[in-house]
Amino acid sequence: MYQPPQHREDDLDTQHDLIRAHPLGLLVTAGDGGLMANAIPFHLKTGSSPKGTLQAHVARANGQWKEIAAGAPVLVVFQGADTYITPSWYATKQETGKVVPTWNYAIVQVRGSARTIDDPAWLRAQIGALTGENESSRPQPWAVDDAPPEFVTAQLKGIIGIEIDIETIEGKWKVSQNRPLADRQGVAGGLDTIDRTDAAEMADLVRRYSK
């Protein structure tokens, strides 16, 4: 990934926070059939390896798992907030006019060797952890145990687990750090006028990385 120094984000906790906030990762493999990519929700497990472990599952009908059964290297991309940035928000536009549009974003790329897991107990724990994370903020969280046991057992037979020990992890936060302070303030203020969650999240990032 192209990473200008001002856009690098090497703090592991910050990278992990983005993965947890945006757990739908793009799993990319390169097998005998060529490149393949699928969007898969991941659970990030920490403590068992220095940089963390990604756990997921896919449908047995999804042939991608066969590409990684032998422990092939994989890439997983986690996309955080992203927004178009108009040069109209820059103070520099009024000063010189020498401005162009751009796109701000936060992204994490993970590489590691994946393995497949065909174990009902592991799969039950994985879906429990994944749903638990995403249901925890709800007033009445749904739990896997809310479904009939025989139904859950049948569903587990239709999926395969994937586990990736993170070997390298890169973060890129392109959030207007290369612009003068007045331009960054204009970007944050402009994003405040847009009624979208990603705009609000990006405005917060621009302000935090302007300090």
Summarize the structure.
The protein has 7 helices and 7 strands. The chain has 211 residues and is α+β, with helices and mostly antiparallel strands. β3 and β4 (53-59) form a beta hairpin.
What do you see in this structure?
This protein has 211 residues and is an alpha+beta fold. 32% of the residues lie in helices and 34% in strands. It contains 7 helices and 7 strands; from the N terminus they run αββββαβαβααβαα. A 7-stranded antiparallel sheet has the order 2-1-5-6-7-4-3, sandwiched between helices. It starts with 11 loop residues before the first helix and ends with a helix.
Mean pLDDT: 94
If you compute it from the alpha carbons, what radius of gyration comes out, rounded to the nearest whole angstrom? 20 Å
Question: What does the largest sheet look like?
Answer: 7 strands, antiparallel
In spatial order, strands of the major sheet run: 2-1-5-6-7-4-3
> What's the helix count?
7
Relative strand content: 25-35%
Q: Count the strands?
A: 7
Compressed to H and E, one letter per element, the order equals HEEEEHEHEHHEHH
Terminus-to-terminus distance: 25 Å
Topology:
Blueprint: H1 12-21, E1 24-31, E2 34-41, E3 43-45, E4 53-59, H2 64-67, E5 73-85, H3 91-95, E6 102-117, H4 120-135, H5 149-156, E7 159-174, H6 181-192, H7 197-208
Antiparallel strand pairs: 1-2, 1-5, 3-4, 4-7, 5-6, 6-7
